[in-house]
UniProtKB/TrEMBL annotation:
Residues 665-911 form the Sulfatase-modifying factor enzyme-like domain. Gene3D superfamilies: paralog of FGE (formylglycine-generating enzyme). Transmembrane segments: none annotated. This is SUMF1/EgtB/PvdO family nonheme iron enzyme. GO terms for molecular function: formylglycine-generating oxidase activity.
């Protein structure tokens, strides 16, 4: 005969229930203990079913599968019992004839021989095989009778069980190595310590000197002999105390719930129940809370005085505040638990000094009235708790308080963003504020992601600072364990980080979600949003292409909900996508389309309702993305020797000027700050005082304007704004040579014509923008100005790096060739921003008026000039030329001249500010 419960277990696994062998043994242990303490429960099939579904069923779908399989099993067992009864009757009849025992003596014997429910009990209990992995001392003597084969000559009253067949049928699976972000290694108690604690605490059967009646063996022996001879006894099995976990699933515990999952992985055989904030009349069977059972029923499952219980809850510490009602309810239920269980431990995930001023400290003080109850702190007392649960003595302790924030005050939540940020730092420390600042980068936060950032960034905040951040007024919960910050809060915190820090976090975020992007579950959209967030700061052009693809799909499918979400996401990412104003503008139009707002569709022109989708798609396709420039720059020592090479990458766009004409290559210069001017050893008073300047991102021509690019605009009289431009101002020829012999006024007219042609904001660079772009340094130090090298190449120049009067030495470099004329652009290595010829070739006009010093100069990167800029007599130039000594080619050197003068080595390059970049018509 097959084993019904084991067959039932196998059937559930085949139906798709994710059951482990530990869950099978857990049920059999419950059943045996239940029968031993209350023999009448053998007949309670409903209770047996309830125990099985409590341990094995975790969802409504699984419940449906369970019910179907259970009905099939009951029907199968009933048929088997009928067959056994028939066999027993045959045995009794034959034995009666052979022994000539009077019939009236056999009748009471038959009642003992085959009690139907006892046979059912035999079927259930026999399924507790001898598994040496969990119970090395266990010797189960109960067995099923081989009643279906009575003719066999078996000397023993019952056959041997072959436990190894059962043990190897379902081998416990060793958990595969989890990724770092899923291993919860940030808790003070790790997996190894949990495993060790379970080895010392787990329930193991131990031998007993006492004996008890073996009802099953007695019935079988009587059936074989045909009469009752004597009772058969067996050694009584005793067990160490069972462990039960009660876990708080309330909202304040969500950031701390990861330890509960880690605990569950380590202590798989331990039954877990859940409650909300305070233990009540019902406990949940899983952390989702969809199924519950009465607390009284749960308590009845476990033998009185033979079970230890552990509660995992913050006891109100995470959110702070005091609740008399919570204390009274908790005290009432703790009395109930301690009256049933041998010992009850409360494991608090937050440190004991923070219990003070909260309900937790009064709950902890209940140990004075409840001697078998104690509260322990996870960070310092886990091993102490395990020792106490084993019944061993532990030394006394003294709790010391610390200041705890009162987050229940309504005024606390009405403060401005700046004030709330400040309060977080004052209440929990700068370390926690630093964690919150880094956590502002992802658009969505989970406890695991915040822990991951804390570890990878080597932040000093304690592990429980994750709860302080996620439960603070800076963050609100979306669903489950997903949190987010409001946009205003997020942008405020991100301003505290420099570009390098943001890019570091973006790369970490990419790594974190890379392996999960292909998962198809409820958080798929959340992970995709995180991926786009990271990409927007690292590779904005790629992010724009992916957003365009998603928008295209949503428009084609007429998925208006998706369109609204994409528009909202693009707006949130706009600080990182400022180079793509047309995309921002487009998503506003797309959102209006999704909402049915006709007024918001005016940018599409006069189109019919049926043509709206096509018009949107056409407009989307016209949005251009930046291209990527790659090269290499070099750095030299004072001898002119190359000591380092570094790769250069830069984003750029091309501005077409006409068919067959090389377009303008406009390199994106990232926002940043630097110390403008020269140090003391470079003794030029007009380059002082050094001052910190913050520069917004802008676009600068990769090269000076070439002669062919000059002619393309200068020859267009239809673009004329203020004055005539000579298409051929330069004496030398060569389309790829920089234009020269142009005045400051000529350069201004050229920029104005470009604006008229393109609709963008082209102009001359300010002195600050030019020097920042030349040095290619993004400074992080705001005090004690560092020393910068005089050239972007390093300590000196050589004739192989720039076109200048190389026959004059600046430091210890060898003399080079003096070319005495311009060279084609891009003849030498670029700087770290991807710009060519920032030293030498031609002087470059800047927009600024001349000032003898930097006293009073702007610190925002703007040009230093008066309103009537054209009337000023002296203008600034930068960079030196082919005619210049190396000292005049330094990054900090300031040239000057009259705006109308024509010189054979004066040229210019243009910049484009992002305001007005990529007009919506494109």
């Amino acid at each position: 005969m097959e084993l019904p419960l084991l067959d039932f277990f196998y059937q559930l696994r085949e139906e798709g229930l994710p059951l482990s062998i530990e869950q099978y043994y857990r049920v059999t242990e419950y059943l045996i203990r239940l029968f031993d303490t209350n023999p009448e429960s053998i007949a309670d099939i409903a209770k047996i079913k309830r125990i099985c579904q409590t341990v094995w069923v975790k969802s409504p779908h699984q419940q449906q599968l369970f019910d179907t399989a259970w009905e099939e099993m009951i029907a199968r067992v009933s048929r088997e019992i009928d067959r056994i009864e028939s066999i027993l009757e045959t045995i009794v009849t034959e034995d009666s004839i052979d022994s000539e025992v009077p019939q009236e003596i056999e009748q009471p014997r038959l009642d003992i021989e085959r009690p139907q429910l006892d046979i059912e009990r035999t079927q259930l209990e026999i399924e507790r095989p001898q598994l040496e992995i969990e119970r090395p001392q266990l010797e189960i003597e109960r067995s099923r009778p081989e009643i279906e084969r009575p003719q066999l000559d078996i000397e023993r009253p019952r056959p041997e069980i072959e436990p190894l067949q059962i043990a190897t049928a379902i081998q416990p699976k060793t958990p595969s190595r989890l990724k770092q972000k899923d291993r919860y290694e940030y808790y003070p108690v790790g997996r190894n310590e949990l495993d060790e604690s379970w080895q010392g605490l787990r329930p193991l059967p131990i031998a007993s000197p006492y004996r008890e009646l073996d009802v099953v063996a007695t019935v079988i022996a009587t059936a074989k002999r045909g009469f009752f001879d004597r009772p058969i006894y067996r050694p009584r099995q005793q067990h160490r105390r069972t462990v039960v976990l009660l876990i708080d699933r309330s909202e304040s515990m969500i950031p701390l719930a990861g330890f509960g999952r880690l605990w569950g992985e380590a202590w798989k055989a331990v039954p877990r129940y859940y409650f909300d904030n305070v233990i009540g009349e019902q406990v949940y069977l899983n952390d989702s809370g969809w199924q519950s059972i009465p607390l009284a029923e749960m308590l009845d499952i476990y033998p009185a005085g033979e079970t230890v219980c552990i509660l995992y809850s913050d006891a109100g510490v995470a959110r702070g505040g005091y609740s008399r009602e919570r204390l009274e309810e908790t005290e009432r239920e703790l009395k109930r638990l301690t009256g049933r269980f041998y010992r009850v431990a409360w494991l608090n995930p937050l440190p004991s000094p923070r219990w003070f001023g909260n309900t937790a400290i009064d709950i902890a003080d209940l140990d004075a009235d409840l001697p078998n109850f104690t509260m322990f702190a996870l960070d310092t007392e886990f091993s102490r708790m395990v020792t106490w649960l084993k019944g061993e003595a532990i030394p006394p302790r003294t709790l010391k308080p610390e200041s705890v924030p009162d987050t229940e005050d309504e005024a606390y939540y009405s403060l401005s963003v700046a004030s709330r940020v400040k309060v977080l730092g004052l209440d929990y420390g700068q370390e926690t504020l630093d964690l919150a600042t880094r956590g502002a980068f992802p658009l969505g936060l989970t406890p695991e992601l915040l822990h991951y950032l804390r570890i990878q960034l080597k932040l000093t905040a304690p592990w429980y600072a994750i709860a302080d951040v996620l439960l603070s007024s800076l963050v609100h919960r979306v669903e489950g364990d997903l949190y987010e910050m409001e946009r205003e809060t997020r942008e405020y915190l991100l301003k505290r980080l420099d570009r390098q820090e943001i890019e570091t976090i973006a790369r970490l975020l990419q790594d974190y979600i890379q392996d999960e992007l292909d998962k198809n579950d409820s958080q798929q959209n959340y992970r995709q949003t995180q991926a786009w967030t990271a990409l927007a700061y690292l590779e904005p052009s790629e992010a724009v292409e992916e957003l365009k693809k998603a928008l295209r799909e949503a428009i084609t499918a007429n998925n208006r909900i998706r369109l609204v979400r994409l528009a909202s996401l693009t707006d949130t990412l706009s600080p990182a996508l400022t180079d793509y104003e047309p995309l921002i503008t487009f998503t506003e139009v797309a959102s209006a389309y999704a909402r049915g707002d006709r007024e918001g569709l005016l940018d599409l022109g006069k189109v019919s309702q049926g043509e709206l989708q096509k018009a949107l798609l056409d407009k989307l396709e016209k949005i251009r993305t930046l291209k990527r420039f790659t090269s290499e720059t070099v750095y030299v020592n004072e001898k002119g020797e190359i000591v380092k090479r570094e790769p250069v990458t830069a984003d750029y766009y091309e501005e077409p000027l006409g068919k067959g004409i090389e377009p303008l290559t406009m390199i994106r210069i990232p926002a940043g700050q630097f110390w403008m001017g020269s140090p003391e050893e470079e003794d030029y008073s007009n380059e002082k005082p050094r001052h910190l300047v913050k520069v917004n991102a802008f676009y600068m021509g990769q090269t000076a304007i070439t002669q062919v690019q000059w002619r393309a605009i200068a020859s267009r009289e239809d673009l004329r704004v203020s004055q005539y431009l000579n298409p051929y101002p330069s004496q030398s020829t060569g389309d790829n040579q920089p234009v020269k012999q142009v005045t400051w006024y000529d350069a201004i007219e050229y920029c104005a014509r470009l604006c008229k042609l393109t609709g963008k904001n082209y102009r001359l660079p300010s002195e600050a923008e030019w020097e920042y772009a030349c040095r290619a340094i993004q400074e992080t130090r705001v005090k004690n100005p560092p020393k910068y090298p005089p050239f972007h190449y390093g300590e000196t120049l050589t004739g192989e790096l720039a076109n200048y009067r190389a026959s004059i030495r600046y430091r210890k470099e060898l003399k080079g060739e003096y070319r005495a004329k311009t060279t084609p652009v891009r003849s030498f290595p670029p700087n770290a921003f991807g710009l060519y010829d920032m030293h030498g070739n031609v002087w470059e006009w800047c927009e600024d008026d001349w000032h003898d010093t930097y006293r009073g100069a702007p610190d925002d990167g703007s040009a230093w000039s008066k309103n009537d800029n054209r009337s000023q007599k002296i203008k600034c130039l930068r960079g030196g030329s082919w005619h210049s000594d190396p000292v005049y080619c330094r990054s900090a050197y300031r040239g000057r001249n009259h705006p109308g003068i024509v010189v054979s080595y004066f040229g210019f390059r243009v910049v484009c500010s992002r305001s007005g970049f990529f007009p919506s018509s494109l």
